[in-house]
Model the fold of this input.
Amino acid sequence: MAAGPSSVHTLNDPDLSDAVFVVGSTRTEIRASRAILASASPFFATLFSAEWSNRDKPIPMPAWNPSAFAVALVHLYCGWVPGTPVSGTVMQALHMLKVDVDVMDLYAWDNLLDLAGMLERPRLASAARDQIMELVNKKVAALTA
Done:
């Protein structure tokens, strides 16, 4: 269950976030609300009740692509999935997170597909799969042209 479109603007707001994720090899910091994430995903509910219950420690996510992780969080906040119309609020959140889904590469989409599985978000997984297929089809078309 997503929090709703009205809360996505709070994503990455230091005043309204009580979790800091350090994502990818670039160590990109992304802030989020534990309550929103825990209510949207069993993975985060478990994470915040166990090892990362200490709110003062940043949560390392070194294996994840920062753009993919940000898109997954936007999805958890409001239900938006890539390939569907983007509201102004979602566009602002993606911009603030420095994410442009139009330039995400195959690696980022594959990472998002893995994240969607881990987070138990089938709509997000389907959207990531569709983006992967579109990129693969473009590559094949370019090679056979």
